[in-house]
Amino acid sequence: MLGRTLREVSAALKQGQITPTELCQKCLSLIKKTKFLNAYITVSEEVALKQAEESEKRYKNGQPLGDLDGIPIAVKDNFSTSGIETTCASNMLKGYVPPYNATVVQKLLDQGALLMGKTNLDEFAMGSGSTDGVFGPVKNPWSYSKQYREKRKQNPHSKSGDSDWLITGGSSGGSAAAVSAFTCYAALGSDTGGSTRNPAAHCGLVGFKPSYGLVSRHGLIPLVNSMDVPGILTRCVDDAAMVLGVLAGHDPKDSTTVHDPINKPLVLSSLADVSKLCIGIPKEYLVPELSSEIQSLWSRAADLFESEGAKVIEVSLPHTSYSIVCYHVLCTSEVASNMARFDGLQYGHRCDIDVSTEAMYAATRREGFNDVVRGRILSGNFFLLKENYENYFVKAQKVRRLIANDFVNAFNSGVDVLLTPTTLSEAVPYLEFIKEDNRTRSAQDDIFTQPVNMAGLPAVSIPVALSNQGLPIGLQFIGRAFYDQQLLTVAKWFEKQVQFPVIQLQELMDDCSAILENEKLASVSLKQ
Amino acid sequence: MAAPVLRRGCRGRLWALACVDGGSCHGRGAPTGSPSNRIRGQSSVAQQPLHTAQKPRKGEHNWAAVVGLEIHAQISSNSKLFSGSQVRFSAPPNSLVSFFDASLPGTLPVLNRRCVEAAVMTGLALNCHINKKSLFDRKHYFYADLPAGYQITQQRLPIAVNGSLTYGVSAGKERGQVIPKTVRVKQIQLEQDSGKSLHDDLRSQTLIDLNRAEGQLRVDANISVHHPGEPLGVRTEVKNLNSIRFLAKAIDYEIQRQINELENGGEILNETRSFHEKLGCTVSMRDKEAKQDYRFMPEPNLPPLLLYDATSLPIGADPRQVIDIDQIRETLPELPSVTRERLVQQYGMLPEHSFTLLNEVGLLEFFQNVIKETRAEPKKVTSWVLNIFLGYLKQENLAVSESPVTPSALAELLDLLDSRTISSSAAKQVFEELWKREGKTPGQIVSEKQLELMQDRGALEQFCYSVMKDHPQVVMDVKKGNPRAINKLIGLVRKATLNRADPAVIKEILEKQLSS
């Protein structure tokens, strides 16, 4: 049951094959079993069981709230949850219990979803590995998969033991690990430069970043307000669409949400043929750092579309190479501003120093933030200084416009959807990953995902195949703004073609009988 | 300052500010007046920021002062600029604070429509150009009463620009002579207010009230002096002036201080100063931090504020979603300058009286209601409303709406006066009775107290005769040609009649009797 998709388990609940409480307890027990993954910062066991109980009553009365009623979900720990600690994986917010729910959380709860817990991340979502949070790094469940372990045994150079576990990618690595390890059916991430799509690619999941303005940010503790979007991590495209259907829409509490999205997504149709589609392949995304395996998969994916009758053309997004540096200026500037409220006065951490307010601010912020956050605050304040503003911030905004226009031009040339890699390589071992600092890693890892945030477009990472090492590889589809439904429809067709294998975690959970229906797991798949 | 004690869960409120930068003079206009005029003239600087000061010493340059005002005015709205929580005067501290007001992480600003409408209306009233697109910015600084670490304002592209306000200053030689002046308005911007800090020096604590500050008006004045024709001088900023009187005093003081400083070979520092209300002087605030860099950046959570007019209004637009400038223009009341002009024209009122009528809330309406119901001359009505009625109100510190005397009662009283049924001193007596709220009409009071003027000429003649008989010395004075002596006789007769006689009639009878 745990290995099923959201849609399948929703049907099972409706048919009474399983009750919400049973489902909740299975997930809770698996969360405990996989605690070493460090996917969750807070497990909201009592809340989830209470919600399950209420859901069960509704099912008994034949009045479930919707498709998500009784479905275990997890939420990244940078979404405010009423009565549940929300830390952003930072000392600064340890012990902070918000008095309100983020709009997206409330919408899920209104549908009867069960909140299993709050997932791990890089501190304040600043990172691409989920390694830089105060609660420690998240381990990629694929590190313990049969697929990866078997490949490793064949490699005489590989070390034995657990020391070479893999990162999940990030910053929504906790959410990705939670869904990937079957502890919930969907999870909320956030996506500012690729934070949902990157870990989705590394963990073999669908990672969807909606159009900016389609989904409310109210209650999402911001990284970069002008780029942040709540992201959705699921096991298949249909599940992502189902969750998006619940989350999308104008929120009076977020003035940047649109009133009339061009296409409010509901249920995806199955695309019978792709002959009317035009797929764009941005030539600037073919960079030397791209692993040959991913490059070849990318190319085969393009061939697949072409062989099925789609028009596949090369397009140019000429300002792509400026995106990361531009992002650095805009991101750190907004970070400097957004982090200003964390002063120890009203909530969160406060140091013991009380000789003056200024000294208290300084010490609180030194103790509360890690080096990455402090570094970005420092850079951002530098860029916003009166003498630097024109040279940095204003220029970066202009470059951002050029990058956004690149996409507009590509779509105006007749392209429906762009196809790109999501990451440069498959997930790397933690010990490998931390050889570079956070800034270098973020700059490298966000290269394919981050321009999309500059332009506010919808994008989705779809797991395509396993690498030679037995690790997932994802490809990214990018759509026009507010053409989220069209984008997901194309992604769904592609998902069906590639038949990505299900993670086999039996070695990890060999005494967890409930999920050891291996054959069943295998059949979870992407077929409906 | 010790660490503020506010912790999560405290509440407060927010208000909006409209900011008006006063225009400035660039050495235009010839300096006028005597040395004493330099200060005297500046005292009305609140209405006259373009005033020039003079250095009269022979052979030396004159001084010109330049004053610019930043006026923070609270918008009268039910809820705050960016949150749904209420605005209420003197609410308990931190009782009106939304999660946004407390800057809880993840909260977002939502612009209050009423505040935008008020800003547009203010812009129209001040002859501004209304920007159909305006933007919001963040202004950063760390202070305990600024919980987000930044303030949302409109620095780059404000809602209204380039306005002007024409007004009159009674400064001429003749009474009631009004000199027209114009002040330029640089911009009007919507701005979130910070919280209020309460410093407890005993406990070394600062308490924060996030209900936000409670003054209705706060002005920062930028002041510099220079010699006409030369570049502008270095300016100082006098912060947080909360009354027109203090504003005028502070500017006067600061201009004089700067002139003295420069004439004594000193220099003016570009600094912020505060006005010491008791000593009547400005003092340097000695900011601990050097130059503040507010690190302005666009507020990413508020899209550009778009306004429409009749020509640009999108077809089929939801009226709840759009703000129509033309529609707001239609709801604009008659502006004070127009009303004042009308009063002067219509009732032959002195311009200064028209100012007084408009400056007191409800007074104009009261005046107009009296006019409507009485036969008395407008000049008489003006005099009674501004002298007697307003005097009583001020003495008891009452608003017009709290007056015990209704416009109808005053109208009736003035009719009695107009028809010479009572004397003007009796009328004042009746007014005093009316003020006691005993529910009696002026007619009732007059008859109860027997205040009617004596209409019996024969009886009056008898009173005059007796008075003249009893005061031969005064009669002698009159006959010797002392013109004021007759007034004494009139007074004595009035007293004898218990103020019930018309002085004009007494005078006539006395003159007749004296000349006979």
Sheet with most strands of chain A: 11 strands, mixed
Low-confidence blocks of residues of chain B:
1-56
Overall mean confidence score, pLDDT of chain B: 82
Give the oligomeric state.
heterodimer
Give a count of the beta strands of chain A, DSSP E runs of length 2 or more: 11
* Elements of chain A, N to C (H/E): HHEHEHEHHEHEEHEHEHHHHEHHHEEHH
Mean pLDDT of chain A: 92
How would the global form of chain A be characterised? Answer: globular
Helix content of chain B: 25-40%
CATH class of the domain at 6-277 and 427-432 and 454-508 in chain A: Alpha Beta
The N- and C-terminal alpha carbons of chain B lie at a distance of: 88 Å
CATH hierarchy: architecture of the domain at 6-277 and 427-432 and 454-508 in chain A: Alpha-Beta Complex
How many alpha or pi helices of chain B? Answer: 15
What is the CATH T-level topology of the domain at 6-277 and 427-432 and 454-508 in chain A?
Amidase signature (AS) enzymes
Q: What are the segments of chain A in which pLDDT stays under 50 over at least 5 consecutive residues?
A: 511-528
**Strand-residue fraction of chain A?**
5-15%
Major sheet of chain B: 7 strands, mixed
* Estimated radius of gyration of chain B: 30 Å
Q: Please state the structural category of chain A.
A: alpha/beta
Compute the number of helices of chain A. Answer: 18
Rg of chain A, please?
A: 22 Å
Main location (chain B): mitochondrion
Function (chain B): Allows the formation of correctly charged Gln-tRNA(Gln) through the transamidation of misacylated Glu-tRNA(Gln) in the mitochondria. The reaction takes place in the presence of glutamine and ATP through an activated gamma-phospho-Glu-tRNA(Gln).
Region (Disordered) (chain B): 29-59
GO molecular function (chain B): ATP binding; glutaminyl-tRNA synthase (glutamine-hydrolyzing) activity
